Amino acid sequence: MVAKSGNYHHGVTIGIIWGFIFMLVTALLLICGCGQSESTSAASLTPALEVEKMRIKLPKPKYNSDVSLEESLVKRRSVRNYTGELLTIEEVSQLLWAAQGTTSDRGGRTAPSAGALYPLEVYVIVGDVQDLTIGIYLYKPKKHELVMISDKDVRQQLTGAALGQSSVKNGAIDLLFTAVYQRTTVKYGDRGIKYVHMEIGHAAQNVCLQAAAMDLGAVTIGAFNDHEVSKILNLPKDEEPLYIIPVGKR
Ligand SMILES: Cc1cc2nc3c(=O)[nH]c(=O)nc-3n(C[C@H](O)[C@H](O)[C@H](O)COP(=O)(O)O)c2cc1C
After folding, report:
1. pLDDT for residue 121
2. The pLDDT value given to residue 13
3. CB of 223 closer than 6 A to ligand 1?
4. Which residue CA neighbors atom 1 of ligand 1 most closely?
5. Given ligand 1 and candidates 177, 209, 221, 225, which is best to mutate, with the most ligand atoms within 8 Å of its CB?
6. Per CATH, which fold does 56-249 belong to?
7. C-alpha span between 135 and 127 (Å, rounded)
8. How far, in Å, is the centroid of ligand 1 from the Cα of 79?
9. Ligand 1 centre and the CA of 234: distance in Å?
10. What are the residue boundaries of the structural domains of the chain, listed by start?
């Protein structure tokens, strides 16, 4: 009997302790908000953070066409005026692939890169493209996809940063090449800076030739205020803008 009563009291005490622990944990979860469901916490993100999560799978690029390399070389010319017609998402996909797309299972790209260190990033400032909303996107070569980082049309602002060059605001898109020098200088020291500049030439020429092959107009723009461009795109501190390439129908 005594033993039974002792067990009973022991059981009650354990029950009270567990009850207390349960209430304490619940209160802590409520205070720190850890108990929110995923959808509730996503809804409470700022719009900018939600935009940041948007990924767009690009259509597969074509690996052949009726236009020869020689014809593209002959046709390539700096084109600064565009008709204002929309580009297709296929055309954007093709240009990005030409710029930095992958061409081997091991990650090799359309342009050579010193030590295969790939210091370049490509942003697309989308204005007039079918099936792509206006905004700024970062190209991800491995998955051939875009990550939206802003839903603002910054073409006008970018034109200001590019000393008023109207091709920047009139292009259906602007490609912006940036470089993270550190990726190359970590191996090659100061000589790596030269290598990055050589590499952007390769990548930009790929874009120019691909644009020519698709009968699109493009121009390589180097005259702009670096600081202003970095600010407009909110670029990471270790990334420097190198080239703007507006592209549009000609
Ligand atoms: C490094 C570099 C920077 C350039 N910057 C500009 C520029 O800021 N604005 C522009 O309209 N064209 C720019 N261009 C394009 C040249 O003006 C153009 O290539 C040159 O006039 C020759 O004409 P083509 O490209 O039609 O052969 C640049 C070209 C290079 C290679």
Report:
1. 98
2. 52
3. yes
4. 222
5. 221
6. NADH Oxidase (3.40.109)
7. 7
8. 10
9. 26
10. 2-53, 56-249
Query: Which parts of the chain register pLDDT below 50?
Result: 1-9, 12, 26-49
Indicate which residue's Cα is closest to atom 11 of ligand 1.
Answer: 221
The CA distance from 203 to 57, in Å, is 21
User: Does the beta carbon of 77 sit less than 6 angstroms from any atom of ligand 1?
Assistant: yes
3-state helix/strand/coil string of the chain: CHHHHHHHHHHHHHHHHHHHHHHHHHHHHHHHCCCCCHHHHHHCCCHHHHHHCCEEECCCCCCCCCCCHHHHHHHCCECCCCCCCCECHHHHHHHHHHHHCECCCCCCECCCCHHHCCCEEEEEEECCECCCCCEEEEEECCCCEEEEEECCCCHHHHHHHCCCCHHHHHCCEEEEEEECCHHHHHHHCCHHHHHHHHHHHHHHHHHHHHHHHCCEEECCECCCCHHHHHHHHCCCCCCEEEEEEEEEEC
4 CA → ligand 1 middle, Å: 95
Q: How far is the CA of 106 from the centre of ligand 1 (A)?
A: 34
pLDDT of residue 38: 30
Determine the pLDDT at residue 49. 46
